[in-house]
Amino acid sequence: MESNIPTRSVEYMDNRISRYSMKKGNCEITGLFLQAHDVYCHHYIPIQLGGSDKFHNLRILHKDVHKLIHMTDTVKMNTLMKNLGITQPILEKINTYRGNCELEHIK
Fold first, then answer.
1. What is 10-100's CATH number?
2. Cα–Cα distance between 70 and 22 in angstroms, integer?
3. Which of 2, 37, 70, 106 is the most interior residue, by most CB within 10 Å?
4. What is the C-alpha separation between 25 and 106, in angstroms, rounded?
5. How does pLDDT run across 1-12, given as a tens digit for each residue?
6. What's the CA gap between 35 and 66, in Å, rounded?
């Protein structure tokens, strides 16, 4: 509640808290409960591709899953996927998010 990110709108700040609450603190890709230091609020449709800070465009993710969505280095992606224990169903969800970011799917 006391967090302040100067580059983010009030709408973003309010909606990320609401989204976290609605998801009961669980990552929207893995389903795992997130401690505060592991939470990242992701724009499902990136701002630069026309997305907004509206509630429906925000997703609560584990910070390392978020990194995986945006990574382009195959070696780092494979290492992170192994460390996170990414299964095929989770990889399919990650690839949906990567597609929204106009990034290639992970194979």
1. 3.40.1800
2. 25
3. 106
4. 26
5. 455 666 777 888
6. 15
